[in-house]
Design goal:
Blueprint (H helix, E strand, L loop, with lengths): L2 E6 L7 H14 L4 E5 L7 H4 L9 H5 L10 E2 L5 E3 L16 H8 L5 E5 L6 H9 L2 E6 L3 H16 L3 E10 L8 H8 L3 E6 L2 H8 L4 H4 L4 H13 L6 E3 L6 E4 L2
Parallel strand pairs: 1-5, 1-6, 2-4, 2-5, 6-7, 7-8
Antiparallel strand pairs: 3-4, 9-10
This protein binds adenosine-5'-triphosphate (ATP) and magnesium ion.
The site of magnesium ion has 5 residues, from helix 1.
C-alpha cells in the first residue's frame, strides 16, 4: 500500500518545499517509486525548485475537472514523478480542495510514496493536505516561533487522527541564539527524523533548479536528507547533529 505524507510546518518559509523535493528524490534514489504533489496552490514552488515553472497541465486543472490526473504528472530527470501547481493566480481561484483525497486515492494505485508539499499556515489549503495524507512530516527551524507553529500543526494532525512520522529541523546553524535540540524535542514530543544544516549548497541548488541531493551529493545537507529518507523507510540510523565540527551522533529516536 502506498504511503502518503503531508510535509507541513505552520510557519511559512521554513524549508517545506526544499524538504519535499529532496526527500522525494532521495526515496527515488533508494529505489522507491515517488510522486511529489504541489498542494500549495496559492504560492506554488515545486516547479520552480525543479526547473519547470510553467507546464501545460497542473493539479489546478485536475481539481477543476479540466484534466485527467495522468496528464498533470511529469517526470524529473531522476525518475521522480511530480504533479506541479499552476503559477497563475487566476487558476488558483475557485479550487475545490475536497477533490484532493480523490486524486490521492487514484495515485496510491500507481506509486509507492506520495509526498504532498503543503501551503504555509493552517488554513483550508493546508488542512486539505493534512486530511488527504496518512502521515505527517513536520518541518521547523530551531526558533521559538517556528516550533510553536509546529506544535499547533502536530495538535491539529492528532485531532485528525493522523500518524506523525516525525519532525525535520532545517536551517540548523548550532548557534547559541537558536532553540536547543533537546528543548525542541521536549516541546514537540515527536521523533526528530533529521537535522538539516543551514548550507549554501541548498541556496545554490535552488539557483541550479534541482534538488541538493542531485546538485551537491557530497554536501552534509544532501547526506542528511538521504539518511532522513532512509529513516522514513524504517532504517534505524542515529540522528546526525551537524554544525558541531563533526557529525556527532547524540540522538536516538
Ligand atoms: N538548509 C537550508 N540552508 C539554507 N537555506 C535554506 C535551507 N532550507 C531552506 N532554505 C532557504 O529557505 C527558503 C525557504 O525554503 P522553502 O521554499 O523550502 O520553504 P517553504 O517552507 O516551502 O516556504 P513556503 O512556506 O513559502 O512554501 C529558501 O530561500 C531556501 O533557499
Ligand atoms: Mg513551499
Amino acid at each position: 500500500m502506498a504511503r502518503v505524507y503531508a510535509i507541513i510546518s505552520g510557519k511559512g518559509g521554513v524549508g517545506k518545499t526544499t524538504s519535499a523535493v529532496n526527500l522525494g528524490v532521495a526515496l527515488n534514489h533508494l529505489g522507491e517509486d515517488v510522486i511529489i504533489i504541489d498542494a500549495n496552490l496559492s504560492t506554488p514552488n515545486i516547479g520552480i525548485h525543479l526547473g519547470a515553472p510553467i507546464v501545460p497541465t497542473t493539479i489546478n486543472h485536475v481539481l477543476k475537472n479540466q484534466a485527467k490526473i495522468e496528464d498533470a504528472i511529469y517526470e524529473h530527470e531522476s525518475g521522480t514523478k511530480v504533479m506541479p501547481a499552476s503559477l497563475s493566480l487566476k487558476e488558483a481561484e475557485k479550487i475545490n480542495y475536497k477533490k484532493l483525497p480523490e486524486i490521492i486515492k487514484k495515485l496510491k494505485k500507481i506509486t509507492g510514496h506520495i509526498i504532498i508539499d503543503c501551503a504555509a499556515g493552517l488554513g483550508p489549503e493546508a488542512r486539505a493536505s493534512i486530511k488527504a495524507a496518512d502521515e505527517i512530516i513536520i518541518i521547523t527551524n530551531p526558533e521559538m516561533a517556528a516550533v510553536t507553529d509546529a506544535l499547533k500543526t502536530i495538535k491539529l494532525a492528532e485531532q485528525l487522527h493522523k500518524k506523525i512520522t516525525g519532525v525535520i529541523i532545517t536551517r540548523h546553524q548550532g548557534k547559541r541564539v537558536e532553540m536547543s535540540l533537546p528543548n525542541i524535542k521536549d516541546m514537540l514530543e515527536v521523533p526528530i527524523i533529521g537535522i538539516i544544516p543551514e548550507e549554501d549548497s541548498i541556496k545554490e541548488s535552488h539557483v541550479m533548479k534541482n534538488p541538493v541531493i542531485y546538485t551537491h551529493p557530497r554536501s552534509k545537507a544532501s547526506k542528511i536528507y538521504l539518511n532522513t529518507s532512509k529513516r522514513i523507510l524504517g532504517h534505524d540510523i542515529p540522528i546526525e547533529v551537524p554544525n558541531r565540527g563533526f557529525f556527532s551522533l547524540i540522538f536516538r529516536r
